[in-house]
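Sharing a chain and its predicted structure for anyone who wants a worked example. Both blocks are below, sequence first, tokens second.
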Amino acid sequence: MNETSRQLEYINKAKMILGDKGLKYFIKTFGCQMNEKQSETLAGVLEEIGYTEAENEKEADFVLYNTCTVRESAELKVYGRLGHLKSMKKNKPNLIIALCGCMTQREITIEEIKKNQKHVDIVFGNFNIHKLPELIIARMESDEQIIDIWKEHGEIVEDLPSHRKYDFKSCVNIMYGCNNFCTYCIVPYVRGRERSRKPEDIVKEIESLVSEGVVEVMLLGQNVNSYGRGLEEETTFAELLRMINEVEGLERIRFMTSHPKDISEELIYAIRDCDKVCNQLHLPVQAGNNKVLKEMNRNYTREKYLETIKKAKEEIKDLYISTDMIIGFPGETEEEFEDTIKLVEEVEYNGAFTFIFSVRTGTKAANMENQISDEVKSDRFNRLKEVLDKVVYKKAKEMVGKETRVLVEQASKSDDATVHGRTDSNYLVHFKGDKSLIGKVVSVKIKEAKPYYLIGEKI
């Protein structure tokens, strides 16, 4: 019996035990889109067992936090919520509390849970997300806290139930883990080494999603550019994109995250050639100075990065380029920070995510000398944001007057007559329309640009 079949048996067993009691679940997801995708599977499992979704923790009989440990702030939020649940459980003793995700892969977290968070019922990690049905049964059969953390990955488990947030778009994992060991990042330690899914399994999943009404997929990996290494029949990411581009009924393909050190001309040509692959490239630079990049263990130079950007702009029409940047890396001088400012001005990003360096115990950067003060970090963050805002707004204004296609995602919360969605190049567009447009791709003419979104008119 394979692992999927085993877990489906546990789902059926839990369903029989719980019966039709009208139980509800609540999942709070912290962190990246990888976690969002995991939470869809966890929600699917709970719904298959018989739970329905609650709007908040107070309504729920099963509360699950899917955690992130990239920054300290995310961990503190989890502990704050757990403290609230502790008092809530006193009045609701049958409440089941579960914790999973990146935080739980750290020994310091497990020690804290055993010592001070004994009201948490189930704790599991990134490598055994699929075991939730089995762990629920274990908790039903025991009054003990269930902690099941794997130190490394096993087989990739396919075909568990999933509850998607959107009917018309979906994330699809193409690989798991990371081999890069950037000195500031905890991810390789909590998600393990890279391993890729078979291309035929990915295509099969996407075909199934399309049959259910999905028109856009987001391919996920910590470094999609290294997809395929280690497979019996090695397949490059560019080759995978071309395979997915042939899926009938699919309209859009996005992906993230793309590591600059591994991006190839083959990939740039695939983005150019494949009509369903969006003309968007998220290419995290992190810093604009070679010394800082070396200290970060990024394995590319400023010059190499700019060469890649130039090539991509030459080959891909109307390319939307976004990035990630870290401010206040240990030892970064004012002059080195200025190199990042200059890089932003040279590349002219369409969008960017900026982060203040956060010490993560267990990473090399946590023990580096010359840690930057919070005051300096804050000042540099604000200065970088000021430059980025100007650059991003300048690029947005270039869209005014153009006609583009928008996948409508939501109605406005403040105006029922307004909807918003994203262009092929990932610009957020607001325009007049009703809820009947949600999930459809419509033609829109851009009338006005704001710093971080556009205003359009349906054609």
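Comments welcome. The longest helix spans residues 374-397.
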